[in-house]
Amino acid sequence: MVGEEGAFVLGWDEVLTEEELSVALKVLCMSEEEFKEYKEQDGWEEDSEEEENSTLSNEALSRLKPPCKKLLYDSVLLTLESYGADLKAEQDLLNNKEAYEKLSRREQQALHVRYGQKRILHQLLEVLQ
């Protein structure tokens, strides 16, 4: 359902792996009865064209049903916990020129990537509240 990497790809304004996230949220938020029906039908026959063409923008994520919002919110929190340092610590390191320059070029690049990932995740938490 999620693909080989086992992760969803988030951008600043929308989910980039929207089909995978949409299906995962639908399945994970189903009641037992809905899931049984889903399995019996081998998934959904055809989603409506409107649903097929919709994007999972941040605005759309804010309108998810409460169980799906909570599931996604909790997932984001778990992802943030998997990082060694919090967003503030990364920002402090980026702002401390002396400490930043002591990092190797590779460590600097990794810091920028981690910081960007954490900012996107924090933004998503705000959208889901």
TrEMBL record:
One GO BP annotation of this record: methylation
Protein's name in the database: N-lysine methyltransferase SETD6
Keyword S-adenosyl-L-methionine in record? yes
Task: Give the subcellular location.
Answer: Nucleus
Q: Which residues form a coiled coil?
A: none
Protein species of origin: Chaetops frenatus
Q: Which Pfam families match?
A: Rubis-subs-bind
State which gene encodes it: Setd6
Q: Where is the Rubisco LSMT substrate-binding domain?
A: 4-121
Any GO MF annotation of the entry: methyltransferase activity
Quote the cellular component terms of the Gene Ontology held in the record. Answer: nucleus
